[in-house]
Amino acid sequence: MTEEPLLSVRDLKKHYPIKKGLFNRQVGAAKAVDGISFDIGRGETLGLVGESGCGKSTAATSIIRLEEPTSGEVIFNGRDRSKGSTNADGVHSNDITNFSDRELKAFRRDAQMIFQDPSSSFDPRVKVGSSVAEMLQVHGMSDRRRRRKIVENLLERVGLSASDYDRYPHEFSGGQKQRIALARALVLNPDLIVADEPVSALDVSIQAEILTLIKDLQAEFDLSLLFISHDMSVIKKVCDRVAVMYLGEIVEIGPTDRVFADPQHPYTEALLSAIPTPDPRSTAKGIELKGTVPSPTDPPSGCRFHTRCHRVIQPEGLDIDQSNWRGLLTLRDRLVAGAIDVESMRENLGVAEDSDGTGIRSQLRTEFDLEDQLSDAKAETALKNALDRVVDGDSEGAGEVLTSEFTTPCEETVPDRTRHADDHESACLLHDREGVVTPAAADD
Amino acid sequence: MATKKPERFDQVDWSELSESGRLDLSINSIGMVITSLPVVLLGLYDWRFIGDRTDTFEFIGLSRNLESLDYFFIFTLLLFFFYLILPLAQNPRMTKYYWKEFKRNRPAVVSLGWLLIVFAGGLLGPLVISAPEQDILIGHQPPVFLSVDAANVANCVGDIVGGQCQGTWEYPLGTTRGGKSVFTSIIYGMTISMQIAFITTTIVAAIGISFGTVSAYAGGWVDEVLMRFVDIILSFPTLLMFLLILYIYGAGLGMFILVFSLFAWGGTARYVRSKSLSVSEEEYIKASRISGASTYRVVRKHVVPNTASSIITQLTLLIPGFLLAEAQLAFLGLGDSNIPSWGQLISAGRSDLAFAPWIVLAPGIVLFLTILAFNFLGDALLDALNPEAEAESE
Predict the structure, then answer these.
(1) Which position among A89, A335, B175, B207 has the lowest Cβ density within 10 Å, counted as fewest Cβ atoms?
(2) pLDDT tier, A436 (very low <50, low <70, confident <90, very high otherwise)
(3) pLDDT digits over A318-349, tens only?
(4) Edge-to-edge, what's the strand order for the sheet holding A25-40?
(5) d(CA B312, CA A340)
(6) Residue in A122, A123, A187 closest to B9 by CB
């Protein structure tokens, strides 16, 4: 390791307690961020990508300590802190999560944030110039004229004019407001900027302008960026490295070009396939992820992605078509959750033509991508048995049959991180199986 | 680009700055401190160094005395000037926008005019016109242009035409039984009404905003305790409390203002709490928290100003209640009989209602108009300052 990273996040967790009852007993926790680790080097841009609700923004606010993280370390080696060391009791001296109020205030000068919604990130009753200048004032610059000069200079630098100082937020367009937000984040001359979906509320044409501005400023002031987005194409434009997040965990992390060229995690594959390609002859079909992100209060066991994964592993001894296998598991989960209402299906079909339940059977098979006849005889018997029970109105029993018959290793084993190349890692059981060398947990 | 001394954000030496300049007051606060200092000193001088019977301004040869209520009134006026009027002048474009919105409501503009008259009358009147004096000989004089049966008037100041005593310009609204000029009494009553309006508003706003924001920001059991306390305040029988205090300490105007405003902030506190809760969810609050600003600063600079529009409206609608309460108590004979309030005047005239109705009607109409004006003003402010309406109009 030649150079210390600017920021290293180690096993960061943020759980929101769920309290109930008269005495506010904690009955559970929403694990918004559940143990993420990554490094950001000086001048580097790390993209954090994932669908909404996966904990990206919580990760950002916890890292910058806008919210108190539940556990984990965030070590920041910016400005003059480079000589950090670990104390006797195992607390790193540069650990943001242990900063006192005083240290935290100094840290605010070194790390700033840009928010998603430009329309609500400025106080509507304060002139934008004053909003930016407030940062300087908070940190002790009491010379009003000097503040104004600095801010006016900075406004020009982000592509606005000095006279915009005295205008109110509602007099600007979204893109202009995001430029001002950038000025506000820059004015304290930080080392790190956390950008929480900075362009997703903007038009595509304006997105490009803002992204270019961010890149220019980054190069000029040697900024590190944590760039959060749900849009893979935006990530591709700005990020040196990318971390893919699913349900509070990082499932794949690596250099942007390598992740885009050779995604190792099925979830990354699915995200990448959602980028529209400009080639009309391209026949590559997008991978459609079914269902929604499971609730972070009760994340799925094993690999958290197994409930939606299109490459979910089949148990030993079973070898059927992958889409059939996915369908079987989905059917099983839906039955166990009691989410299949046979009565209403029957009503929709009409009783007369479905006295023996063939209609329901075939409808279920179509809905869950199951062939009329599974290629594996044993599996087919179990499925038939389950469908019979469904027709008899015993959904619970059907679920039990499928549960006892079909299980995937994905729901039993938590995948370790697999290292594919120098700094390209992913967490998927497929790679354990393929026997890729696994040095597992990242060493500091 | 500035060539001589470039002021750029990346060339700031923070290590030299961060410890200096702790006390960073705005112009408004500096003005407030500078102007209220003499008032405080005068108050101390009045309280400590001169006797109860000596007039405050005797040292410069003026025979004017200031009560503790007057000091408080001056203080609130300064507050209003530096934190309400001056900011409006400092942000002319925002003021123009509010005025444009406000202007749409014609009755409110008329109301504002009327309240300005009452305000100016209350503030300047007593300096120009000498206090109404008792003169039993000229009791029951009718208002100008009106006349009354000469038999009811002991000594008619104007002409007696056909057995009718004519009113004169000397007493434009007539006189009371004791011979006090009704007009002068109304002018002096304006001072009382303005004192009630300003001081109660300040007390209610101060306590309500502190309770509301602390409650919203502290959360947990602090929130719970404060809000239950608000429930107690809201359900407290203020009138009974006032009667008790009246029995023990006597019924001064100061006591009235204190008791009634100390039991009136409950609604404001609740209102401020719910408003602050919704404002504190906004992203700009996060943005200012991440600047490293203290919670106090965030609340003071961003949360309170953004709840201010609703608070101002709510307070404006509270004032009529206080004015009415004062008049009612005075009418019942429970008020401070030493002050020339409108309520006292009405109460003084009720026995002569049969032949001298002006004693009751003149202050009654003024009171009615003032209360109506406050209500109109509150409604118009709600429309003009409401941020939601503002957003829709864009």
Answers:
(1) A89
(2) very low
(3) 888 888 888 888 888 888 888 887 778 878 77
(4) A25-40, A7-20, A71-76
(5) 55
(6) A187
Domains, chain B? 197-393 (1.10.3720.10)
pLDDT of residue B393: 42
CB neighbour class for A219 (10 Å; exposed up to 12, middle 13-18, buried from 19): exposed
Looking at residue A291, the DSSP 8-state letter turns out to be S
Higher pLDDT residue, A283 or A409?
A409
Q: Does A172 touch chain B (CB under 8 A)?
A: no
User: Could you tell me which residues come within 8 angstroms of residue B381 by beta carbon, excluding any fewer than 6 positions away?
Assistant: B102, B108, B309, B312, B313, B316
First to last CA, chain A: 9
E strand residue ranges, chain B: 147-149, 160-161, 164-166
Helices (H), A139-173: 144-157
> Which of B8, B283, B312 is best to mutate for the A interface (most A CBs within 10 A)?
B283
Q: Which residues contact A59 (CB under 8 A, 6 or more apart)?
A: A12, A14, A33, A36, A48, A228, A245
Q: Six-digit token pair at B101?
A: 């919105």
pLDDT above 60 for B391: no
Closest CA to B221 of B229, B231, B209, B210: B229
A79 touches chain B (CB under 8 A): no
Average confidence (pLDDT) over A178-187: 92
Which residues face A28 on adjacent strands?
A: A18
Mean pLDDT value of segment B9-31: 71
Mean pLDDT of chain A: 84
Predicted confidence at residue B110, as pLDDT, reads 95
- Quick one: pLDDT band at residue B97, thresholds 50, 70, 90? confident
Which residues between 307 and 326 in chain A have a beta carbon less than 8 angstroms from any beta carbon of chain B? none
- Closest residue to A115, CB basis, from B8, B12, B287: B287
Q: What are phi and psi of A228, to 5 degrees?
A: -100, 135
User: How many Å apart are CA B94 and CA B88, to the nearest integer?
Assistant: 8
Query: How much of chain A exceeds pLDDT 90, in percent?
Result: 22
Tell me the two tokens of residue B264: 């009136």
Q: Does domain A7-126+177-267 have CATH number 3.30.540.10?
A: no
Q: Which of A61, A108, A125, A178 is the mutation pick for testing B, counting most B CBs within 10 A? A: A125
Mean pLDDT of B34-55: 81
Please list, in sequence order, all residues whose beta carbon lies within 8 angstroms of the beta carbon of residue A414, skipping any fewer than 6 positions away. A302, A303
Residues B157 and B179: beta-carbon distance below 8 Å: no
Question: What are the boundaries of each domain within chain A?
Answer: 7-126+177-267, 127-167, 322-407
Can you list the alpha helix ranges (DSSP code H) found in A28-127? 56-63, 101-110
Confidence of residue A384 (pLDDT cuts 50, 70, 90): confident
State the ipTM, two decimals: 0.78
CA nearest to B283 within chain A? A121
- Cα separation of B279 and B387, whole Å? 11
Contact indicator for A37, A13 with CB cutoff of 8 Å: no
Q: Does residue A443 register a pLDDT over 80?
A: no
